[in-house]
Specification:
Blueprint lengths: L6 E8 L9 E8 L4 E5 L6 H7 L8 E6 L2 E2 L6 H7 E4 L12 H11 L4 H14 L15 H13 L5 E5 L7 H16 L3 E5 L3 H4 L4 E6 L2 E6 L1 H6 L1 H6 L6 H12 L10 H13 L1
Parallel strand pairs: 3-8, 3-9, 6-7, 7-8
Antiparallel strand pairs: 1-2, 1-4, 4-5, 9-10
Length: 279
């Protein structure tokens, strides 16, 4: 990926309490257009605090966050920044503002003054993308958790953002709901939307282009999923698990010392075993 990063975090510090009580202690991060970045870490590591800095919901006490060159600390840029970077939270009910799905999705672009014909087109496009157009007349409170999360994503998509931040957006979903959301993320990537996933589910993180590991408010590792998960010792010290296939590869290595551990799927494990059998 080329060009100026979409989002730049430069030495970001932030504290909820007094001096010395930092939730973020000098985080630097880049997110490029169209990239999928997963942010993982133990509870209290600063993941959600960092997520809220990416579109100006929180502003750093030191350092800077820039979105397309706009400093999030400048109130004059707040509206443009939040159009560029949309947030989807763990609890979609907190994002619902209307009593009908279609009106909820229309709320954001309508407040931006989007003309009526374009507004209808955006709402339909967003709801069809998340496969919720047939539910457009339903009250949001009658939807399942997974359906509500789809509507929350549609409401962000209707704003035409360049990046969507998913802050533990799958934590309340069942496996089917998580799989559905995974397919939506893949669709967003295909249309060029950047995605930042805050997650504690390692199989979700494994689908990203890059993983950033936070601990005690600092970045302790960053790189492609294979490289990050191959360092199982570091993750174990943080209380983080491995994706199931990688964990299986490490178990096999206990019996076969030279067995590769940078494997991300059952198919890769099968191929590795078959390759050894054939050699």
């Amino acid at each position: 990926m080329t060009g100026e990063p979409l989002i730049v975090c430069d030495g970001v510090e932030y504290g909820y309490g007094g001096a010395g009580d930092l939730a973020l202690g000098g985080v630097s991060l880049r997110v490029s257009a169209g990239e999928h970045v997963a942010i993982i870490g133990p509870n209290g590591s600063g993941k959600s605090t960092l997520a809220r800095h990416l579109n100006g919901l929180l502003r750093p006490s030191a350092g800077a966050v820039r979105v397309r060159g706009m400093d999030t600390r400048d109130p004059a840029h707040t509206r443009s920044i939040r159009q560029t970077v949309g947030m989807v939270f763990q609890h979609p009910d907190s994002q619902m503002v209307a009593t009908v799905v279609e009106e909820d999705v229309a709320f954001g672009p309508e407040n931006l003054g989007v003309p009526r014909p374009e507004l209808h087109a955006r709402v339909r496009e967003a709801l069809e993308f998340v496969e919720m157009w047939d539910y457009r007349d339903r009250p949001p409170h009658l939807l399942s958790a997974g359906q509500k999360q789809r509507v929350a994503i549609a409401a962000v998509l209707a704003m035409r953002p360049a990046c969507i931040v998913l802050d533990e957006a799958t934590s309340l979903l069942d496996p089917r709901g998580r799989a559905d959301l995974g397919r939506l993320v893949a669709g967003l990537r295909r249309q060029g939307t950047a995605v930042v996933s805050i997650t504690h589910l390692m199989d979700e993180a494994a689908a990203a282009d890059r993983i950033v590991v936070l601990a005690r408010g600092t970045v302790v590792a960053s790189g492609p999923p294979r490289a990050v998960f191959a360092d199982a010792g570091r993750l174990a010290t943080l209380g983080l698990d491995l994706p199931p296939a990688t964990a299986l590869a490490f178990r096999i290595r206990r019996e076969i010392p030279d067995f590769p551990v940078d494997l991300m799927s059952v198919d890769e494990i099968v191929d590795a075993v078959a390759g050894r059998a054939a050699s």
